[in-house]
Amino acid sequence: MALYTAKFPGSRSYEAEIDRAVDWIEAASGEGPVVLAGDFNSPITTTQKQYDQVARRLDNLGLVDVYRTARDLEHGEPPVEATYYHHRRRERGFHIDHIWLPADWADGAKVDVGDFDTWIAPGLSDHVPVTAHLDDSRFMATL
Q1: What is the pTM of this model?
Q2: How far apart are CA 14 and CA 18, in angstroms?
Q3: What pLDDT, on the 0 to 100 scale, is given for residue 28?
């Protein structure tokens, strides 16, 4: 499932939009594995608590943030690489793009995060790509 959260009139927050996506995943549970990936626009400092609540729901569904798994980050430990640069300024980086997938798929996964000089500096985007490279044998057995 691809996700791009946006604030529309009447929407409460980016995290509320993510929460709605988790509702859809819960409704479809049992129909096969799910990958939720995209521009979550969260968390930033002011929304960390709300994001943590949504992340707990995803954890409870057996999904993990493959970036955090690949970087061996403990709960609460901040990401070391930004995926978005506010106003395309290097010092205003946030990690708001995510790939959540089944926990057993994340074992041995490699994650690459694009760099500022390649993507942001030349004006290609205000985000850098996040890609996950998975061991085929991990997920082919579940399809």
Answers
A1: 0.87
A2: 6
A3: 82
